[in-house]
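Quarterly update from the structural biology core.
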Amino acid sequence: MHRSKLAGFIIDCQTGDLPGAAQFWGAALGMPGQVLPGTEGEKYVRLLDPSEALHVEVQMVSHPSRVHLDIESDDIEAEVRRLEALGARRLQQVQTWWVMEAPTGHRFCVVAVQDSPGFESRSTRWP
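Predicted structure, tokenized:
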């Protein structure tokens, strides 16, 4: 058995101005930005959800801008297999997570449990 839930959204921005993109999205969503430490801060800015329900980041990318969601799981491989059985396919493993594609063509990631509170109570348990 494993558990999973929607972790949040990643706002992919094809831009050379990550701080400017994060400033726009932070103001638009009412979420202050937090620069991430080390080399992560070169590609990502976290937007702090006041309700602490969602993990939201602005990410600098080389592909066209889009928004993708992250599904967090306490067993990434089991969750990927479950989603493949539903018709999704693996595209690329990046560090510890998988980039997937839904049958509809939408990209999403399966990631490890994030630091958001309430994973146990808000997640779905899968057989």
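The first strand starts at residue 2 and ends at 13.
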